[in-house]
């Protein structure tokens, strides 16, 4: 199972995983529910870039994260530009990019073990109603860590298609699904080998 964690001693690395997870949830709510304009989206993206700097991530790490998102930005932004308005395209695409970058930063500065521990503690009271806290914690943590992984797969698929001169279309999603499913199989095998499933 591939880990995106990058060891470090920055303030974000030292921050408890629970605080980072809560911060991600708050940011997601604010970005989703608060009415935005292009200026506030620019400020939000600037704040995300500042957090990457606070985590002492090299500029190339943030650039790589953005590069992985380039086709999502183009497709989502292009569709919203055509079917809604340029301003709505900018705002909505900016929201998604900010959230994905924040999720990526969480996985870069938090080990899977720390994330699982926090989620397990949060979900422990649900055992009283018959919910398996371990399974739910594992599912949530895997979902968060899969966001940047799938974004990277999308970038690799598009690069391969560009090299072959293939046009972007519905069939372009097939290789992405195959890569995502293969990765899911690898993750399942790794979990089974550790006796977690």
Describe the biggest sheet? none
Identify the overall geometry. globular
Give the overall average pLDDT. Answer: 82
Could you list the spans in which at least 5 consecutive residues all have pLDDT below 50?
none
First-residue to last-residue Cα separation: 14 Å
Structural class: mainly alpha
- Helix/strand order: HHHHHHHHH
Number of strands: 0
Number of helices: 9
Over the alpha carbons, how many angstroms does the gyration radius reach? 18 Å
As a percent range, the share of helical residues equals over 70%
Count of domains = 1
Instruction: Tell me the β content.
Output: under 5%
Summary tags:
single chain; 197 residues; mainly alpha; 77% helix
Summarize the SSE layout with pairings:
Layout: H1 11-14, H2 17-33, H3 38-54, H4 59-68, H5 70-83, H6 86-109, H7 112-123, H8 133-164, H9 173-193
Helix pairs in contact: 2-6, 3-6, 5-6, 6-8, 7-8, 8-9
Describe the structure.
Helix 3 (38-54) runs parallel beside helix 6 and helix 5 (70-83) runs antiparallel to helix 6. This protein has helices at 11-14, 17-33, 38-54, 59-68, 70-83, 86-109, 112-123, 133-164, 173-193. It is mostly helical and 197 residues long. It is globular. The model has no long low-confidence stretch (mean pLDDT 82). It starts with 10 loop residues before the first helix and ends with a helix. The chain contains 9 helices and no strands. The chain has one domain (11-193).
Short description:
With 197 residues, this protein is an all-alpha fold.
